[in-house]
Structures are given as C-alpha cells and as structure tokens.
Amino acid sequence: MIKNLIRSGMRHADSPISRREYYYSNLMNIGMIVMMLIALFVNLIRQFNTNWDDPAKTIIYLYLYIFLITFGVVNLLLNSRGYYTISRIILTILIPFTIYFIPPLLKNTGVGMYLNFPYLPIGFMIVLHFLFIKKKDQYIVFGMGAIFFLLAIFTKNYLQLFIDDQAVQYFQDTIERTWISLQVIPGILYIFCFITIYYAFDHSRKYEAELLIAKGEIEKQND
C-alpha cells in the first residue's frame, strides 16, 4: 500500500524528472502525515497526563496538526489525479507559511521558538529543491529560496512583534545580545545548504542529460 501511495500519480508524468518529482512529493506528504499523527498522539497523551494545564494552546496545536494531516491527504489525492501543480503550491507555500506564521500570530511565542524557528526555513528550502527539479523551474527555487532566507534571518524580529510570554520578556536582554546566534548563524547555514543542494541537483541534471544523449546515439547505431 505504501509503495502504491509513493508512486501515486506517476502515470501522469511526462518525463523521468517529473516522475521523480511525483515520487518526492508523495514521500514528503506521507512523511508529514506520519509525523503529525505522532505529534498529535504525543500531545494528547501529555495533556491528559497534565489535566490540560493550558487548553487554549493545546487546542491551537491540535488544529494545526489536523490541518497539516488533512493537506497531506489532499496532496496525495491531487497527485493521484495529476494535479501536481496545485499540490506543489500547497506543499511549498501554504504549508510552510502556516507552520511559520500561525503560531506567533496566536500569541504563542515561547523562549524555545527563538532557538528553533530560525531553522524552519532551511527545511522549507530543501523541499523546494526536491519538488522543482527541472532546469526551467529553477527561477522558482531561487525566488522562493530568497523569501525563505529572509524568514530565516528575520525570525527574531518577527517573533518579537507578538511577545506574550513572561519568560520571553524576562530574557529580552539576552535575546538582543545573542543576535549572532539567532540571525547570522541561521543565515550562514541556510546559504551553505542552498548552494550545496543546488549544485548537487544541477550536477544530477547534467549527468542525466549526458546519459540521454548517449542513449540516443546508441539507439541510432542500432538502427
């Protein structure tokens, strides 16, 4: 069953690269569904053990998990029908922006978010490379990659717009002094990952093109 889900929609692909894009998209959606189901289950167990000490925040995250699970399923259905473009938009724009923007907008800005949120855009960027493999789509990778880069280096500034946690207010001076760790390091790591992954895929595209040329020459010789 899992194998069929991973290969869902590949019959609609018009090239080997498109088939790989379908494959990666299905794999990511299945992975997201599984991770969100685990997070949902763990969160529910933790809340039952603590007698729902913060029900408002818990409900927010439960809705977020359910939202992501739902769109993972929707994406798999879209891919199976050949609507891969819509699926890519959901996976590379709607879902990343929901994960990044919604929790702070709901006044959920704990100290831990300053440590992990700057690195979320790196994951979003990696998804771009796997879903936009074709050379003609690289302008999308660079355009969205630039947006995600800005999110990575300005996460601290964004979170400070919605400070509602006394612990964050208490550590405000520390947060201001550690701007290198919160902004510069995520930016450097982002650039490193982007360049490395881009050239890996670019080398793969060139190698595949050479193989296709060699295959064509062999077929001509056989004819």
Brief overview:
Helix content is 82%, strand content 0%. The protein is mainly alpha-helical and 223 residues long. Helix 4 runs antiparallel to helix 6.
Characterise the protein shown here.
By secondary structure, the chain is mostly helical. Helices cover 82% and strands 0% of the residues. Helix 3 (55-81) runs antiparallel to helix 4 (84-105), helix 6 (120-131) runs antiparallel to helix 7 and helix 6 packs parallel to helix 11. The longest helix is centred in the last third of the chain and has 44 residues, at 179-222. The protein is flat, with a radius of gyration of 21 Å. The model has no long low-confidence stretch (mean pLDDT 84).
Separate helix tally: 11
How far is the N terminus from the C terminus? 41 Å
Structural shape: flat
Percentage of helical residues? over 70%
Binned strand content: under 5%
Largest sheet: none
Descriptive labels:
223 residues, mainly alpha, 82% helix, flat
Layout of secondary structure:
Layout (H helix, E strand, L loop, with lengths): L1 H5 L9 H34 L5 H27 L2 H22 L5 H6 L3 H12 L6 H16 L1 H5 L6 H5 L1 H6 L1 H44 L1
Helix pairs in contact: 2-3, 3-4, 4-6, 6-7, 6-11, 7-11
